[in-house]
Every structure is written in C-alpha cells, then in structure tokens.
Amino acid sequence: MIKCGECGYENMDGLDYCDGCGAKLEAVGTQAPAPAPEAATAAEPAAAPAVTVAAEAAPAEPVPVEPAAAASAPEEPSAASRAPTGEISAPEPSPAPAPAVSAAGAPFKAKLTLIRGGSRRGQEFELEAGNNLIGRWDPDTGSFPEVDLDADDPEAKISRKHALIRVEGGRITVEDIGSLNGTYVNRQPRLQPGNPVELKNGDEVIIGKTFLKLTVSPIS
Fold it and tell me: CA-to-CA distance for 118 and 50, rounded, in angstroms?
C-alpha cells in the first residue's frame, strides 16, 4: 500500500494519485545496496600478522652464512612481505549493476486514439513511461489525469479515477481501479479491479461509453 503524505489515506500500490484527496503520490522504489568493499580491506590485515611473526622469529635462530652466500644478491621479497607496503593491489571492485530496463528506454512509443464516443473523435493521447491515469478532471482537487476524457463524457459514465495504463519494462498493461461502470478490453468481460491485463498494438479499450484504440510504433 502507498500512504498519502497529504491526508494519510492508504492507497493501492501503483497509483499516482491519492484516492482520498487526489494529491500526487510519491513512488517508493527499492534498490539493492551496492556491495561494500570490505572484503579487500579485511583481507589486507590478515596477512600482516604472518609478516610480523616471520620478522620476529628470524633473530631467534640465526643461521651461519658463508661469506660467498653473504655476498650474493638479496632474494626477491615474497608476496606476503610486500602486502603491507601496498605493492599487492586490492581486488578491483565489482562493476555497478546495470540499471533495470525502464519504460523510458523501450524501443517504442504508444498512444491512445479516441475512435468512438464523445465529441473529439480522432483525439490522441500520448502515453508516458510509467503510470497513465484514465479518467476525468477533478474540480475538488484540481488533479488532471494523463488521459483526460472529461470533454468526451457528457453522461458522466467515466469515473474521475477510472483505469490505469502502465508502460513499463517493454510492456503495456491496463488495470481497472474501482470504476463505477467498468473497463473492458476488446469487448471481453469486465476487468476485475486490481488485475492488470497486458495490451498489444491495435487493442481496443472501452471506458464507460468511450472507445480508445492503442497504437504502438517502434522507434527507429
């Protein structure tokens, strides 16, 4: 549920506007925390005691060295002895996960065209990425839906918050949000509130007595 910051009303997930006061709802997203680079930091102190012990244990039992051996070139320090000096580089951090494919990056654009009902036959409504509310202007709250059919509904068959079209993840869905007269797709049975149905190019959405046709066009 989404709690309205204005009136405190509990709304269904996915709504952009409060059913109680009509205020714009803030979307709540979750993002998995980026992995903290603690593994590399923890790995470096682990090698330090081994180096310290080796340095302290060396004087305990001195080994006689022949003059010829003493004159030889010093051996290359081991990886463990180089670790405290920073010569062994820490593991590179994992690349940040790629962002999820959003509707804004979908290779298409979509619109609804009014084909029957009302006085604006041929009127087009471009669909935005995310939520698109279908309904009528609410004079009490002053809120406007993305698909405003107030001028095409003289008999008030369309609820002020009638249905929700969501463009997300390369998919387009329509969902009835508790309208009085129902939402229909391709003249099939009435949609159950809260159960989104996926739409495709050419589908017909009926809101009250208003018929809308979905057009999906690829972006070249």
Answer: 83
